[in-house]
Amino acid sequence: MFDRFPDSLIATSVRSVDYILLEDVKESAFSEINKLVMKNGNIYIGDFRNHKIVVFDLAGNFKFAIDRKGRGPQEYLEIKNFAVDDHSIYVIDNYRHILYVYDSRSGKYLNKKKLPVVVWDVECFDNGDFLFAFAPPLPGGSLSDKQSPHRLFCYGFQLPHKTQVVYLFRGRSNRQANLFFDNGRSHCFSFVRFRCFHCLFKK
Fold first, then answer.
1. Which of 24, 41, 49, 167 has the greatest number of C-beta atoms within 10 Å?
2. In what order do the strands lie in the sheet with 35-39?
3. How far apart are CA 109 and CA 83, in angstroms?
4. Which among 53, 55, 65 is positioned nearest to 27, based on CA atoms?
5. What are residue 82's DSSP bridge partners?
6. How far is the C-alpha of 190 from the C-alpha of 170, rounded, in Å?
7. pLDDT digit string (tens) for 71-122?
8. Contacts of 124 (CB under 8 A, 6+ apart)
9. Looking at the whole model, is its pTM more than 0.85?
10. Which residues, 6 or more positions from 122, have their beta carbon under 8 angstroms from its beta carbon?
C-alpha cells in the first residue's frame, strides 16, 4: 500500500527553476506547449494545435521535429497525444485509429499499430506495454458502439490488447491543472482538462 497519496501538482514537486534558451530556427517554431517530456537527454515538446513535436537537447539546441500532418502512409491526421521511451516516440491519431512510431533520437518513421478504440493519452512501461487513457463524454454525449466503457487500457506492444483495467472515478468536478509525472527515469509536464479522479499503481 502507499504510505501517502502521491501529489502530482508541479508546485509541490519542483524545488528550483532554470531557464533554457531554445534555438530559434524555422523548423523549431511552435505556438504552444500541450505536453513536454524530458528523456534521453532531450526535451520533447508537443504542439497539438499545429500537429507537431519539436525536440531539443538539454542545451536548447534544435535536433529535429515530427511535422507530418497529411494522408500519406507515414503521416497522421492529428496528434492527440504522445509518449516517449528509450527508443521511440508514440503518436496517437484517433482519426485513423493508429499509433504511429518514430525513432526518439532522429524522428525517423518506424512503423504503426492499429488502435481498436479511441484513446486520449498514452504512457509506456519498461516491459514494452502501454497504458492508454480515455475520458467519458460530457453530459448528453454518447460512446460509439465500438468504444469500450473502460477508462484505462493496458496493451502489449503487439496490439490488440492483452488486458483491460477499470479504475474508479472519484468526484465529478471539471477542472484544469498542470500535472507533473516522474517514474524515476523520465519527467513529463502536461496541461490537461479532466474530471477529477485518482489512479494508484503498485507492482
1. 167
2. 62-66, 52-57, 42-47, 35-39, 187-195, 174-182
3. 15
4. 65
5. 91
6. 21
7. 988 899 999 999 999 999 999 999 999 999 999 999 999 999 888 778 888 8
8. 83, 84, 85, 90, 130, 131
9. no
10. 81, 82, 83, 90, 92, 99, 130, 131, 132, 133
